[in-house]
């Protein structure tokens, strides 16, 4: 069953290609949603997909791209949001 997760990644995750990395991995896994930078220097992700695939996605996000340093990953299941694809929001 598809679910939507809200994910916030904290650490050194801006200016290191984290949003592009997230989109690439989401596209590979068939996850729909969005990723954007937050003002507090974290990254916010909404991801819609099968629960098992979302778990794999989160494991990948915990590692991040080479220059990232992921310090914290917060996740919560939210009301289902329908996305057409996976988008990078913001600049």
From TrEMBL:
Keywords: Hydrolase. The keyword Hydrolase applies. Its EC number is 3.6.1.7. The active site is at residues 19, 37. It comes from the Bacteria. This is acylphosphatase. PANTHER family: ACYLPHOSPHATASE. It comes from Helicobacter anseris. Residues 4-90 form the Acylphosphatase-like domain. It catalyses: an acyl phosphate + H2O = a carboxylate + phosphate + H(+). GO terms for molecular function: acylphosphatase activity. The keyword Hydrolase applies. Belongs to the acylphosphatase family.
């Amino acid at each position: 069953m598809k679910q939507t997760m809200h994910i916030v990644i904290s650490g050194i995750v801006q200016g290191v290609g984290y949003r592009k990395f997230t989109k690439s991995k989401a596209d590979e896994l068939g996850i729909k949603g969005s990723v954007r930078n937050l003002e507090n220097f974290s990254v916010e992700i909404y991801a819609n997909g099968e629960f098992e695939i979302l778990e794999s996605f989160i494991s990948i996000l915990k590692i991040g791209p080479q220059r990232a340093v992921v310090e914290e990953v917060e996740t919560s299941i939210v009301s289902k949001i329908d996305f057409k694809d996976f988008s990078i929001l913001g600049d």
